[in-house]
Design a protein that fits this description.
8-stranded mixed beta sheet; two-stranded antiparallel sheet; LysR_subst-bd; globular; Arc Repressor Mutant, subunit A; alpha/beta; DNA binding; D-Maltodextrin-Binding Protein, domain 2; disordered C terminus
Amino acid sequence: MAMHFDITDFRLFINVAETSSLTRGAERSFLSVPATSNRIKNLEDNLGMKLLERSPQGVTLTNAGKTYLQHARVILSQLEMLTGDLQEYAVGLKGQLRLLANTTAITEYLPPVVGEYLRTHPDVHIDMRERLSDDIVRSIRDGSADLGIVSGSVVTEGLQSVPFVSSRLTIIAPHGHPLLERGEVFFKEALSYAFVSLLEGSAIHVFLSRAAAALHIPLTIRVQVASSDAIFRMVEAGAGIAIVPQAGFERLKGQQKLGACTLLDPWAVRTFQLCAQDFDGLSAFARDFADSLIDWYRTPADGEPG
C-alpha cells in the first residue's frame, strides 16, 4: 500500500500530540476544530491505522501515533536545517532556533549571548522555553528542540554535549538573618525558614521542591513572584529567604540590602552543558548560536568564567 505524507499533516499532528487536545492543537495550527478533526481522520484513513485514541479528557497516542510523531519531528527538523543551510547562500541566515534551558541559564547566562547573536542574525527567530534539565534531554532526543542547556548530574547519554560554564546556588537573606552569621549551611537547615520563590512550574521551583521532598521536609513558601529581580526585592523586605544563582547575587548585590551564605549540598554547584543530537547536523544558524555561546564563556573578557 502506498503511503502519502504531507508537511502540513506533520505540523498539525505534532501540535495535537503536544497539547493532548484536538481543540488546542487546532488553535496552535490556526485551524478550526472540525477541519483539524477531519484532517486527522483523513490521515488515519490514508495510512490505514489509528494514530489517536479520543476520549472526553483529550487524545492519547497509539503506538503507531508515537512512531508517526517521532518521525514527523525528525523530518520537520531536517527541513528546518535544509532551509537554514540553503538560505545562507541567499540574503543572510533565516530560520527558527528551538532552544530549551533551565531558569538559571535563561536569567543569568543567556541574555548577553542572545542579544549579541540576534544583532548579527536579524532574520533568525529564537523560540526559547524554560524546562527542567531532564525534560530538556528528552526533547533533544526526540527532535522537538535543536539545542538544550542542562545542568547538574542529568544523564545526556546518546547526545553530544559541551560544558561551558559552572554556577553555584547560594542562599540570600536580609542583613542580620541567623543564617548569614553561619556563613555555610545545608539545604536541610535552611528549610526551617520560609522562602521566597518563583512561581510554581518554574524549573528552579520544581527543582527545590523535589530536593525538599527527598529530605521529607516541607518547603514553606511565603511569597511567589514572577521574576528573579522580584525575589531579591522581597527578600530585602523580609518576606523570607531564597536560593538563587551566585551570579545573580553578584549582579544585584550592590543594589540590595541583603547578604548571602554558601549552600553546602553537592547539587548546589552545577556545570552547565550545551547539548544537541549532533552539532554537525544542526542548521547553519543553530551552529552559529552554539559556537557563540561556547566562545562567550571561554573568553574571560566577554563572559563570566564560572
